[in-house]
Amino acid sequence: MADRFSRFNEDRDFQDFSSQTNRICRALKDFENWRAEYECRHLKKLRKPLLFQGNHFDQYEEGHLEIEQASLDKPIESDNIGHRLLQKHGWKLGQGLGKSLQGRTDPIPIVVKYDVMGMGRMEMELDYAEDATERRRVLEVEKEDTEELRQKYKDYVDKEKAIAKALEDLRANFYCELCDKQYQKHQEFDNHINSYDHAHKQRLKDLKQREFARNVSSRSRKDEKKQEKALRRLHELAEQRKQAEW
């Protein structure tokens, strides 16, 4: 019984191997036929190379050698070896591959990747950005304008103004207007007041003020003299007019 079962398995394996060998032989024969037909159709225009100055040059007829170009928009032609093999096994144009014809009918598109990120990194970044956008804090300009919100803004502005005023008053105690210098400590400000630089600027300022006062006084005296001269001239003209009337 065991010998009969083993002999049966050997016969079945031999039959499977024979059928596979026959299919391979038929496929090779079909490929050879297609190759011969292709060479006869597309390469018959190719001439033999000519010997010219010791070099070989291939010459062709007018026009270039026709070569089938692959394209996503244009299906393969009916004389293509792959197309013919599929038709021989029962496939028809427009059908999908597979036992239940569940395969896709259009070619797989080519997507060129220009960035240097890894596969799936861009989708992860977009998901993270979308999640962060959804969980972001609402901006002040996006909040609804209410009386409470306006009062809050007003209190904030008043507080900022009070802080700025207090800081300005504090700095005014240690600010030298003559030298345009601001000090943070009393000792630094006192040293500056007693320094030669500050005293020199103070003397220069006093000198300019005295010079300005002198110029003003001299200008006022000149104006007074001009006014007296004009009055005397008017008085003389009045006297001459009276004498002319008499």
From TrEMBL:
<dbReference type="GO" id="GO:0003676">
    <property type="term" value="F:nucleic acid binding"/>
</dbReference>
<feature type="domain" description="G-patch">
    <location>
        <begin position="78"/>
        <end position="124"/>
    </location>
</feature>
<dbReference type="InterPro" id="IPR036236">
    <property type="entry name" value="Znf_C2H2_sf"/>
</dbReference>
<keyword id="KW-0862">Zinc</keyword>
<feature type="domain" description="C2H2-type">
    <location>
        <begin position="174"/>
        <end position="203"/>
    </location>
</feature>
<keyword id="KW-0175">Coiled coil</keyword>
<dbReference type="InterPro" id="IPR022755">
    <property type="entry name" value="Znf_C2H2_jaz"/>
</dbReference>
<dbReference type="InterPro" id="IPR052445">
    <property type="entry name" value="ZnF-G_patch_domain"/>
</dbReference>
<keyword id="KW-0863">Zinc-finger</keyword>
<keyword id="KW-0479">Metal-binding</keyword>
<dbReference type="GO" id="GO:0008270">
    <property type="term" value="F:zinc ion binding"/>
</dbReference>
<dbReference type="Pfam" id="PF12171">
    <property type="entry name" value="zf-C2H2_jaz"/>
</dbReference>
<dbReference type="GO" id="GO:0005634">
    <property type="term" value="C:nucleus"/>
</dbReference>
<dbReference type="InterPro" id="IPR000467">
    <property type="entry name" value="G_patch_dom"/>
</dbReference>
<dbReference type="Pfam" id="PF01585">
    <property type="entry name" value="G-patch"/>
</dbReference>
<protein>
    <submittedName>
        <fullName>G patch domain-containing protein 8 isoform X4</fullName>
    </submittedName>
</protein>
<dbReference type="InterPro" id="IPR013087">
    <property type="entry name" value="Znf_C2H2_type"/>
</dbReference>
<feature type="coiled-coil region">
    <location>
        <begin position="129"/>
        <end position="159"/>
    </location>
</feature>
